[in-house]
Automatic annotation (TrEMBL):
It comes from Salipiger mucosus DSM 16094. One of its GO terms (cellular component) is proton-transporting ATP synthase complex. It comes from the Bacteria. It is found in: Membrane. This is ATP synthase beta chain. InterPro entries: AAA+_ATPase, ATP_synth_F1_bsu, ATPase_a/bsu_AS, ATPase_alpha/beta_chains, ATPase_F1/V1/A1_a/bsu_N, ATPase_F1/V1/A1_a/bsu_N_sf, ATPase_F1/V1/A1_a/bsu_nucl-bd, P-loop_NTPase. SUPFAM superfamilies: N-terminal domain of alpha and beta subunits of F1 ATP synthase (SSF50615), P-loop containing nucleoside triphosphate hydrolases (SSF52540). NCBIfam families: atpD. Its EC number is 3.6.3.14. Keywords: ATP synthesis, ATP-binding, CF(1), Hydrogen ion transport, Hydrolase, Ion transport, Membrane, Nucleotide-binding, Translocase, Transport.
């Protein structure tokens, strides 16, 4: 088309061309970056468990700071800052349900991370992620000390080596994968192989001989399992030396994500401030990872391997590295780890393996045969399986047990391949009956 033809077309439609409205503001508006007009922090957006809060100029809180929603409801609503969207807006994750939260609601900055009550006052109590009693008991007495859930691990110069064996009272564990006093042990297994049952059995057997304090973290725990544990501890008479911290399965991902840190903070106070040995039980570490993956997706982060959050290794390390022994006291941790689809190469399982002193693998084949606890002798291991630590009296039976298990496994594989008739006597074989 020639230039004269284009000019003729434009001249024929002057009103349509001039009728295009002028853009009154840029395409990407910066309204969200404007400070709160009232000079107070207010909710600017709500999307499920993610809440945006607008602050006055220069008042943006730090990451992991706890915010409290000031509304006219009896239940508390705590937010934790996770992202700085712009100089005046913080993106937060809600620890409780956000149903009924409206834009414009005022928010108070606590100036510190989430805190939980610690000390003897919480012994025998069941708490949630922010330290509120959920056992229908009396409220905690006033003046109970509180500690922040976000803390640094002990310095390397303060940590003590883990060379002392922690007797669990379960022979197969003490023989094949002995636990380290002040160390970290985990039980790996798929669904239905007995991880939670073994955790409860450890609580029962250790409570009789263990003079320290126990802290149980129920991460994504089922209500039925929590109720059974509560009743069992009461019947065994060890509830008054135990603290239970629950983030139940029906709670928002923020609560399930932080409940392990809340329980660990309670255990650290007994270790550092009161010089007591603590037994920390966590069920289940995979649900902790799963909750972190949900939070990561809600915040809009791109997923990493197998859909997990890109900060998977960092989040597990922040939890595991705080579990340590110091001079005079120790935190001994026993954890349950769900293995999705019995795949031990799953990133969540592989990342947890690297932080452990003892690994107890539960076998589905043994569980299907009715052998409980279904501890796999070949896959389970411990850093204390050394003659200089456990002695030759334990090393020799462990090696014989491993050899017998290896032979049994080979026979099982051959039987599955050739069939059960391959193990019949030679006289019962067809060619022997024919005289051949």
């Amino acid at each position: 088309m020639s230039r004269a033809a284009r000019c003729a077309i434009l001249a024929a439609f002057p009103q349509e061309v001039n009728a295009l409205p002028a853009r009154s503001k840029p395409l990407f508006s910066k309204e969200g970056s404007r400070p709160s007009p009232s000079g107070r922090a207010v909710v600017s957006a709500v999307s499920g468990s993610v809440v945006d809060v607008r602050f006055p100029p220069g008042a943006l809180p730090e990451i992991n700071t706890a915010l409290e929603v000031l509304w006219d409801r009896p239940e508390a609503l705590v937010l934790e800052v996770q992202q700085h969207v712009n100089p005046c807006t913080a993106r937060c994750v809600a620890i409780q349900e956000t149903a009924g939260l409206a834009c414009g609601t005022e928010v108070a900055d606590t100036g510190a991370p989430i805190t939980v009550p610690v000390g003897d006052a919480v012994l025998g109590r069941m708490l949630n992620v922010v330290g509120t009693p959920i056992d229908r008991g009396p409220p905690l007495p006033p003046g109970v000390p509180r500690d922040r859930i976000h803390r640094r691990p002990p310095a390397l110069s303060e940590q003590a080596p883990n060379t002392q064996v922690f007797q669990s009272g379960i022979k197969v564990i003490d023989l094949l994968a002995p636990l380290a006093h002040g160390g970290k042990a985990a039980m790996f297994g798929g669904a239905g192989v007995g991880k939670t049952v073994l955790i409860m059995e450890l609580i029962r057997t250790i409570a009789d001989r263990y003079a320290g304090t126990s802290v149980f973290a129920g991460v994504g725990e089922r209500s039925r399992e929590g109720h059974e544990l509560w009743r069992d501890l009461g019947r065994s008479g060890v509830l008054d030396r135990t603290v239970l911290v629950f983030g139940q399965m029906n709670e928002p991902p923020g609560a399930r994500w932080r409940v392990a840190l809340s329980a660990l903070t309670v255990a650290e106070h007994f270790r550092d401030a009161m010089q007591r040995d603590v037994l920390l039980l966590i069920d289940n570490v995979f649900r902790f990872v799963q909750a972190g993956s949900e939070v990561s997706g809600l915040l809009g982060r791109l997923p990493s391997r197998v859909g997990y959050q890109p900060t998977l290794g960092t989040e597990i390390a922040e939890l595991e590295e705080r579990i340590a022994s110091v001079r005079g006291a120790a935190v001994t941790s026993i954890q349950a780890v769900y293995v999705p689809a019995d795949d031990f190469t799953d990133p969540a399982v592989a990342e947890t393996f690297t932080h452990l002193d003892s690994s107890i693998v539960l076998s589905r084949d043994m569980a299907s045969d009715g052998l409980y606890p279904a501890v796999d002798p070949l896959a389970s291991s411990s850093s204390l399986n050394d003659p200089s630590v456990v002695g030759p009296a334990t090393t020799r039976p462990r090696k014989r047990c491993g050899g017998s298990s290896r032979s049994t496994g080979n026979c099982r594989k051959s039987s599955r391949f050739w069939g059960s008739r391959s193990w019949a006597p030679r006289t019962a074989r067809p060619w022997a009956a024919r005289g051949g």
